UniProtKB/TrEMBL annotation:
<feature type="domain" description="Glycosyl hydrolase family 4 C-terminal">
    <location>
        <begin position="194"/>
        <end position="415"/>
    </location>
</feature>
<feature type="site" description="Increases basicity of active site Tyr">
    <location>
        <position position="109"/>
    </location>
</feature>
<feature type="binding site">
    <location>
        <position position="283"/>
    </location>
    <ligand>
        <name>substrate</name>
    </ligand>
</feature>
<dbReference type="InterPro" id="IPR036291">
    <property type="entry name" value="NAD(P)-bd_dom_sf"/>
</dbReference>
<keyword id="KW-0326">Glycosidase</keyword>
<comment type="subunit">
    <text>Homotetramer.</text>
</comment>
<dbReference type="GO" id="GO:0046872">
    <property type="term" value="F:metal ion binding"/>
</dbReference>
<dbReference type="InterPro" id="IPR015955">
    <property type="entry name" value="Lactate_DH/Glyco_Ohase_4_C"/>
</dbReference>
<dbReference type="GO" id="GO:0016616">
    <property type="term" value="F:oxidoreductase activity, acting on the CH-OH group of donors, NAD or NADP as acceptor"/>
</dbReference>
<keyword id="KW-0170">Cobalt</keyword>
<keyword id="KW-0533">Nickel</keyword>
<comment type="similarity">
    <text>Belongs to the glycosyl hydrolase 4 family.</text>
</comment>
<feature type="binding site">
    <location>
        <position position="169"/>
    </location>
    <ligand>
        <name>Mn(2+)</name>
    </ligand>
</feature>
<dbReference type="InterPro" id="IPR019802">
    <property type="entry name" value="GlycHydrolase_4_CS"/>
</dbReference>
<keyword id="KW-0378">Hydrolase</keyword>
<dbReference type="GO" id="GO:0004553">
    <property type="term" value="F:hydrolase activity, hydrolyzing O-glycosyl compounds"/>
</dbReference>
<dbReference type="GO" id="GO:0005975">
    <property type="term" value="P:carbohydrate metabolic process"/>
</dbReference>
């Protein structure tokens, strides 16, 4: 069986160990010959890499492992680039979250002004990696988790329309695992219909393989508890995530015909979100004190002991999704998965030039979209506003336009007025010096 070469871009990410552990779990179905970590922060990556040098020597010595900050080394002879970079790292995430909160506006990693600021940083970083990949391994696929995926996807649609990049998000799978637990079934048995933008979508159908409708039973639960239920997973388990899962109850109430993505709370209940956010200790602080510490101390522990026996690295659903996608492309499995792709009629009554999140069939030539037909007025209205925000951000980045970025912020449902949008924008420009193109 062919052995694949994988490059993890953002090798120093807190999610890198989970993805590598998942790859190791799948060596029979998806064997790896070469694994290379790439990052632009040498010191951060080195901690993770040195730990894996030890772990892989013990558990999978047949894999040729390396790590580098040199693009040519990282992207030559690779089959899959799994990208999860965070341009500006947690220090900038913290600013994205705290600056809007000064104006009592949602401060969030991917939604509202924080997501817009992050988008303005990410576009250049992703294009750079995509260009390296195409230069050194033109037949490779880039599977991109780097956020904000909606803005990154629109940027690559506009600027690299023929690139082999697939943008993805783990949130729908995370939610479906909760749904499966609520129903007492396995999420692999679901047959779903779903439409929307990234972090902005709805399920319209959830059936089992026999065609039985599972929505009524789910709705009965969601009406009371949202999607909150205990699942064994390393991801989405902090109290703030449970709160998000619970709040789905109120998001669902606005349209009981569909089941919503958790992220819609930021757009439908921004006042509630602001009231329940500690402006001095946001999600970035929770992650720095939580996941980042746990992952890096597990790595340091391996390095100190010189062995990965009983190590603290875990796997989760985030990792299973990207590994399943790579395997589906490699082996033409024709699995159905949600991807962020150009609409081009898949949602009939929506902008054909929008990047939408819909089910696709994955095979070795890429993906085929599954048409989702016409969507209701409520969702269509929300999506038109949000997709315009995302398009304006990309236009602002391309043209260096202050005006367009101000319009983007003004149009976001999370921002109450053009005046507040302008104040937030001016603060964000100051904070993002050196990361954003200069705006005129
Ligand atoms: P992290 O800060 O721990 O890791 C990001 C790494 O990227 C860092 O090591 C950093 O040095 C590196 N990096 C930054 N800019 C780079 C560049 N230009 N080139 C190469 N490397 C660069 O962040 P994290 O919390 O582990 O998250 C990583 C990314 O994955 C984020 O973008 C996050 O939003 C995203 N994510 C997406 C999903 C999804 O559903 N799409 C789910 C989880 C995480
Ligand atoms: C979900 C989303 C990701 C996002 C992550 C944030 O998994 O799909 O796009 O990056 O949550 O999680 P965190 O624990 O970093 O706040
Ligand atoms: Mn996501």
């Amino acid at each position: 069986m062919k052995k694949f070469s994988i490059t993890v871009a953002g090798g120093g990410s807190t999610f890198t160990p989970r993805i590598i552990m998942m790859l190791l779990d799948h060596q029979e179905e998806f064997p790896i010959g070469k694994l290379c970590l790439y990052d632009n922060d040498k010191d951060r990556q080195e901690v993770i890499a040195k730990a894996f040098e030890i772990l892989l020597k013990e558990r999978a010595p047949q894999i040729e492992f390396s790590y580098t900050v040199e693009p040519e080394v990282a992207f030559t002879d690779t089959d899959f680039v799994m990208a999860h970079i965070r341009v500006g790292k947690y220090a900038m995430r913290e600013k994205d979250e705290k600056i809007p909160m000064k104006y009592s506006v949602v401060g969030q990693e991917t939604c509202g002004p924080g997501g817009i600021a992050y988008g303005m940083r990410s576009i250049g970083g992703i294009l750079e990696i995509l260009d390296y990949m195409e230069k050194y391994s033109p037949n490779a696929w880039m599977l991109n988790y780097s956020n904000p995926a909606a803005i990154v996807a629109e940027a690559t649609r506009r600027l690299r329309p023929n690139s082999r990049i697939i943008n993805i998000c783990d949130m729908p799978l995370g939610i479906m695992i909760h749904m499966a637990k609520i129903l007492g079934v396995n999420e692999k048995e679901f047959d779903i219909s779903y439409f929307g933008l990234n972090h902005f979508g709805w399920w319209t159908q959830i059936k089992d393989k026999e065609g039985n409708d599972l929505m009524p039973k789910l709705k009965t639960y969601v009406k009371e508890h949202g999607y909150d239920i205990h699942v064994e997973s390393a991801q989405h388990d902090d109290e703030s995530w449970h709160e998000t899962y619970r709040k789905v109850k109120d998001v669902y109430a606005v349209d009981p015909e569909t089941l919503p993505n958790t992220y819609l709370k930021y757009y439908l209940y921004p006042d509630y979100v602001v009231a329940h956010t500690d402006a001095n200790y946001t999600r970035a602080n929770q992650v720095m004190d939580g996941r980042e510490k746990t992952v890096f101390s597990a790595a340091r522990d391996i390095i100190e002991k010189g062995t990965a026996k009983d190590c603290g690295f875990v796997v989760d659903d985030h990792a299973s999704y990207i590994v399943d996608l790579a395997r589906a492309l490699a082996f033409n499995t024709k699995e159905k998965m949600l991807l962020i792709v150009p609409n081009e009629g898949a949602i009939e009554n929506f902008d054909p030039e929008a990047m939408v999140e819909i089910p696709c069939i994955i095979g070795k030539d890429g993906y085929e979209k599954i048409n989702q037909g016409r969507i209701p007025q409520f969702q269509k209205g929300l999506m038109e506003q949000q997709v315009s925000v995302e398009k304006l951000v990309v236009e602002a980045w391309i043209e260096g336009s202050y005006q367009k970025l101000w319009q983007a912020l003004t149009l976001s449902r999370t921002v109450p007025s053009a005046g507040i949008a302008k104040q937030i924008l001016d603060d964000l420009i100051e904070a993002n010096k050196g990361y954003w193109p200069e705006l005129k």
